[in-house]
Amino acid sequence: MGLEVYVDLMSQPCRALVIFLKKNNIPFVQKTVELAKGQNYSEEFLAVNSLAKVPAILDDGFALAECVAILRYLLARYSSLVPDHWYPADVQQRARVDEYLSWQHTSVRPHAAKVFWLEVLIPIYTREPVEPEKVKEALEDLENTLVAMQRKFLKDQPFLCGQEISVADILALCELMQPVACGHDPLAPHPLLVAWRARTEEVLGADLLAEVNACIMGAHDKLKNYLHPQGEGTLAVPPAIKYLQK
């Protein structure tokens, strides 16, 4: 059976996982699960992940969900293919990567994603623009997070957790693509973070990033065309969007 990877490349963690796999030449079969079409609730996918979330993998019959858990599994499973710097064997260096992986769930991830939800998803689902003040507040929250990320993790290092790139850098780069897809560059006021992004992109490769990020660029038009193919009507608003509208 081999390694099957279930992803929707509109999702930041899914893109991070695919980038990691391709960069390290780990053989896998990519299975697309389109969240906008509700394919994550199909019988086939629920058999892989009953939580109905992507990414998920099926590795010779072994099912696993959650991006960070999947990355750690793959790093151990394919250790002969993966250079040490992605998740160092040194206990303190690895702990630093783990520290970022734990922190980003309540910082970079929600704050970068919220900008995308407010400027792309909510207007598409509701056909109403979000109040500019809410977008401004979301960008301010993201700015505070970036200041913390630079102060705590990047410091004066080339990469977030040390002298070499790690899985932390891939995850951060993918999360920060969400506001870029909305026309924002939140890193612009931070020269050290801009330089970090350039180094990370150079290591990962322009062609690979362009391939995996293609779906997120121009996401507004793509989602709008799918959700409203006739240009009319409204859709049931998902719970997450109702929460962000408050």
Helical proportion, percent range: 40-55%
Radius of gyration: 18 Å
The CATH topology of the largest domain is what? Glutathione S-transferase Yfyf (Class Pi), Chain A, domain 2
CATH architecture of the largest domain: Up-down Bundle
Topology:
Elements: E1 3-7, H1 12-23, E2 29-32, H2 43-46, E3 56-59, E4 62-65, H3 67-77, H4 91-103, H5 108-126, H6 132-154, H7 167-175, H8 177-181, H9 191-204, H10 206-213, H11 219-227, H12 239-245
Parallel strand pairs: 1-2
Antiparallel strand pairs: 1-3, 3-4
Structure explained in plain terms:
This protein has 246 residues and is α+β, with helices and mostly antiparallel strands. The chain has 2 domains: 80 residues, Glutaredoxin (3-Layer(aba) Sandwich); 155 residues, Glutathione S-transferase Yfyf (Class Pi), Chain A, domain 2 (Up-down Bundle). Helices cover 54% and strands 7% of the residues. Strands 2-1-3-4 form a 4-stranded mixed β-sheet, covered by helices on one side. β1, α1 and β2 form a beta-alpha-beta unit. The longest helix is centred in the middle third of the chain and has 23 residues. The termini are far apart.
